[in-house]
Amino acid sequence: MKTDIEIARSVALKDITDIAAQINIASEDLYRYGNHIAKVPQGKINETKIKESNLILVTAITPTKAGVGKTTMSIGLALGLNKIGKKAIVALREPSLGPCFGMKGGAAGGGYAQVLPMEDINLHFTGDFHAITSAHNMITALLDNYQYQNRSTDKVLKEVVWKRVLDVNDRSLRYIVTGLNGTVNGIPSESGFEITPASEIMAILCLAKDIDDLKKRIEKIILGYTIAGEPFTVKDLGVAGAITVLLKDAINPNLVQTTEYTPAFVHGGPFANIAHGCNSIIATKMAMSYADYVVTEAGFGADLGAEKFFNIKCRKAGIAPKVTVIVVTTQALKMHGGVPVEDIKKENIEGLKKGFENLDKHIENMKSFGQNVVVVLNHFANDSAEEVKLIRQHCEVSNVRFATNEAFVKGGEGAVDFARVVVEAIEQSPSEPLRYTYADQDTIKQKIEKVAKQIYGAASVKLSDKAKKKLSQIAKLGLNHYPVCIAKTQYSFSDDASSYGVAKDFDFTVNDIVINNGAEFIVAIAGSIMRMPGLPKAPQANYIDIVDGLIEGLS
């Protein structure tokens, strides 16, 4: 079979105006980025049509380090829906350069279920990530200047909590000292970098409803605390307007196409293990304004992305899926069933059966939100007929619809049965009204405990002294009504990345808490999770090259 990039190049792309015309968006409403990419003004959202659209969430069981192919399954489902005569759009997050050149490679789907042009989408695209990085670091520079100019006055901040960001995996930048070599170069200070998807600006962009809301949220960002202990915000710095100017184009969602010319909105890119893990509300609502069926995804396993999709994104946007799809692979099931990672491609019936425990916990969690669940197998060539049969039987016993998806090798044709199962689920037994894990009026501590105990299965939550102080500060600032965004490992229900399957009766440890006042949620950092990833021993960058003008090694 051809590589992803070979398949991508074999598709004769349509002009983006033709893709827009399929969903009745006029060419004059597009901001073009060449022939195959365009931005659509956020003002084109139609709230009335949103109410008539069928939103489908794609999530997954706890993934392997290679993932489970959730983006490919999302794109494949949209292709399959169009194959059976439904008007469908897929709405996805933008890839980050860090993982693209690090461990995971690209994030534009795979095989014959990709969003195109994949090279541009996986690299600089329309510059949204650069705009977010620039906006974030512009605030940092202006804040450093404020500190420098007021260094001998009572206006100087006692504590600065705003860091820097970069869309690169670089462990050496996690903790740094700035302002060295004399006062002319600033005030020596401890600082650090996080990856751009972890930026509060990224979260704000993905949760803002329009440009005015974006500016109001930027104004609320807490940068530090005064000598009197009061929060100091971007509004206090007086630069919210300037920062919004840097994001005036980035707020508009990006329209592209799939391998089969299905329209796709690709916009925003927070990670679900360190942020809220969903594409922008604006892009999702834009897709729902122009399609009867909209497929979107939430990052990593359902304990991370889907939980935050419901408790944060749906709560803020007033939307809810008609059905939730959980992606499984035989490899991930076997890994969670205790099969050594090096052997998970081999048939192992007992390991597969034991791995069902992980799937069942995710199904239970999704049903706790009132969701109707469909399980889909991302079908690989080395999956045995017996393994597929066992998964199907297990789903039948669990009273959950099941389908297989072969869109990776067959495109939309390989997802037709999957699409029919999803439509049947929506028409015959749509999800119930959304039930959140916690109430707005719960304290932040109660919200963390409810997610940890009900979704992860923790026996207790342990808070560091640092986290306890932050909780007191949150209560003092009157921010207990915010939802929580728990940053933890994606490889386990617990805060221990090596605890596969379903961890039970464990202590869930919160080491720090971050107030994202502009994004209007509280980040609880659990276990050893890092908001600036490192690179593996053999990063994907080793295989990326440009040969005779063509990019190689992107996947």
Briefly summarize what is shown.
The protein is an alpha/beta fold. Helix content is 36%, strand content 19%.
Describe this structure in words.
The structure is a single chain. The protein is an alpha/beta fold and 555 residues long. It folds into three domains: 4-95 and 108-123 and 254-428, 3-Layer(aba) Sandwich (Rossmann fold), CATH 3.40.50; 128-246, 2-Layer Sandwich (Domain 2, N(10)-formyltetrahydrofolate synthetase), CATH 3.30.1510; 444-526, Formyltetrahydrofolate synthetase, domain 3 (Roll), CATH 3.10.410. Strands 1, 2, 3, 4, 5, 6, 14, 15, 16, 17, 18 and 19 form a twelve-stranded mixed beta sheet that branches. A four-stranded mixed beta sheet has the order 20-22-23-21. Helix 4 (70-83) packs across helix 18 and helix 14 packs across helix 15. The longest helix has 22 residues, at 128-149.
